[in-house]
Amino acid sequence: MDLAAFEKLFRLLHAPLCEVVDSYVHSQAIAEEIVQDVFFVVWMRRETLPSSGLRAYLFTAARNRALIHLRHRSVVRRWSLWIESRPDVAGVASAAPSADIALANRERSAALRAAIDRLPPRTRLALVLQQDHQMSLTEIATAMDISVKGVEKLLSTAKARLRELLAAHAPDQQQRA
Length: 177
Known about the structure:
Low-confidence stretches: 92-96, 172-177
Radius of gyration: 20 Å
Mean pLDDT: 82
Strand content: under 5%
């Protein structure tokens, strides 16, 4: 693969790959970094990569790197929580009301993120583009290559499904109280 072909491939697939990765990691900056890494690997291995199926390879590699990032973030989060729970490691423990509020907020955020992660991929992508990136319906339609009505349907489905999933989670919270 020569430089001109690589640049053409980069221009063609950079934005779609970023959208896919962003739908997993929920951060445009991290998504761009992951996609940059994927393209770097492609450039470094350009002599050994087959020219056919390169598009599928890029999307698979980007998704796999996003999943690796999520696993790493989960490990970091678990360690952070473990350290916070150990006064001998973290220093002086926080006052009980502050800790309770922080825990409740973390649980709500985790429940919402888990519910969003359970949405179908295209539905989740439309919701993330609207909520996290403040994109208009028209911008989402253009990015996803669907009609505005299609975006409206995806967002309506997402919100209805989230209400169901979060309502199912609410009794668990009440039973613990």
